[in-house]
Amino acid sequence: MSNPSVILLEFNELTPAVIERFMAEGHLPNFSRFAGEAVRFTTRAEEPFTLLEPWIQWVTVHSGLAYKEHGVLKLDQGHHLAAPRLWDLVSREGRRSWVCGSMNVNYEADCDAYVLPDPWCTKVAPRPDELRPFFDFVQTTVQEHTNEAHAASPAAYARFAAWMLQRGLSMDSVTSIMKQLSTERFDRTQWKRPAVLDQLQFDVFSHYYRRLRPAFSTLFLNSTAHFQHAYWDSMEPAAYSDGAGSGERTRFKDAIRFGYEQMDALLGRILQLAGSDVTLVLCTALSQEPSRGERDFYRPRDIDALIRLAGLPAHVSVAPVMTQQFFVEFADTASVEDAVTRLAAVRWNDQPALRTRRDGLRLFVSCGIRSRVPAGATLAFGDSRLPFEDVFYRVPTRKVADHNPDGLFWIRQPDRATATVAETVPLTSVAPTLLKLLGIGIPDYMGEPVPTSAMAAQTTTA
Description:
Blueprint: E1 6-11, H1 16-24, H2 29-35, E2 39-44, H3 54-63, H4 67-70, H5 86-92, E3 97-100, E4 113-116, H6 132-143, H7 154-165, H8 171-187, H9 193-212, E5 216-221, H10 223-235, H11 255-274, E6 279-283, E7 287-290, E8 298-300, H12 303-310, E9 315-320, E10 325-330, H13 333-344, E11 347-348, E12 351-352, E13 354-359, E14 362-367, E15 378-381, E16 384-387, H14 388-391, E17 392-394, E18 401-404, E19 406-412, E20 419-420, E21 425-426, H15 430-438, H16 454-461
Parallel strand pairs: 1-5, 1-6, 2-20, 2-21, 3-4, 3-5
Antiparallel strand pairs: 2-19, 6-19, 7-18, 8-17, 9-10, 10-14, 11-12, 13-14, 15-16
């Protein structure tokens, strides 16, 4: 094929052992079909456990660089890396890309690509600007999904619905939304909402894919990663020694399977959308495993109240990030240093209440408490006191699964070559492999691609 086309399915953190189990049980017909028509690898991130984070490893997938080379440590730092991403290299060949929701992105000024950044991004703008209504709404919804005080207004929902109606809102999504809203009032199914967001993201992806017919596309979906983090103890209580998964939480025993089934349904629609001549690549970057410890997390309810308590110097901006973090940006170095000292002095129960990490003029801040905080607790700064619950609230779902360095890397090509490679391959091999599939030269600084023909892959296995 003279101009091959590739869709990279970024199904964040799906777990090899779990997907194999659900396929064997007959729950995932589309994943089973995909697996039977693909060359299958397992990637392994080279970073230590403390550096296994999707916002680190997805940068590796997009750039071909390991963390020690790209240095992107946190969400919303993708703009720090000047090295080209895959879509930049595709653009240099005179071909277009469509980047839908990928994590920690950046793009060159003259890149021919539509780019919808992840909802935690504040430094890289959607491109073109017509994507901004979707980006802004999802950003508000995702960043504050557990904080009712910052919920989107009815008017915001109406504007979002009008935008979606013009850009591919499917009857499947409408049906899912109506079912979700109707069951929430009686069956406590709010936990299923992330799957609806994935469906909406697919609708947007599908609309622009049909319109642009890009050479290279990405589609990032995150709902099942969330379900695994929150409900692994309900799926596999025997893996926990402290009774996690017992009692009321047993009602979530099928929550993770629900997530995989929802993604399986979307995969079926993607197979129809792509047709027979497009190469589909499934990559998860990481996977998950039962947690090693810390489970309770606290998100900021009122960041300004904390800033007033600690008497922080004048700041430029404040924004929440994923899970329990937020960042505060300052105008100068002296202000950052002063803020570090002041926040370190905020205490709860005579122990530091906050964790901070400096990044230039930005300070990433999170609640450092991982145990259950009793009602009536207070935060202290010198002689000043503030009710803990005025500043932080406990996230309703605990984190009960950690990241694992292994991930899925399945390549379904037009010739339907099939093979399963037992040995792991480095995560850095994904980017050069995608360039090879696109017929684009691989830069010297990247590693080697994996073999994509059935014969070569079987030779690798042997």
